[in-house]
Fold this protein.
Amino acid sequence: MACLTLGDVSSCIFRRSGKEPIPARTNLGRRMSIEAHSTLLGETAPTEMRQGLAVRYWGKGAPLVLFHGGMGSWTHWCRNVVTLAYKFTVIAVDLPGYGDSSDAASLSEDAYIDWVADVFAGIVANLAPAGLVGFSFGAVVAAGVAARKVRQV
């Protein structure tokens, strides 16, 4: 798979698979909660800590790792997780200093990317080559991880 820099990729997944997407909004126009998305999959997403980074998993299939944008967390992807999990093992990572992950205040840019790349390598070590998806700041991180871990992407 290639390193993608997309925000909402769910519509292109369904165009290729022929399935109908699950609406991201209820009939009242409110966003579905993260818990509702997990319920639709029939599973929950417990947090697994990997070298100080919070990681969550959904679905079955080829691994697809999601990196959120700046000032956010894995919840940036809550509208995409259910849709993507029909075709992929979705792996959402809270980047260093965000969400439930450890602080990264004193790290250089290279040390930051190295940290994420090492965690990525551990996550996908026994899986097929993984796809990377990021948007905004997450796209920069995804590109750095892909450059460092070419054989696993």
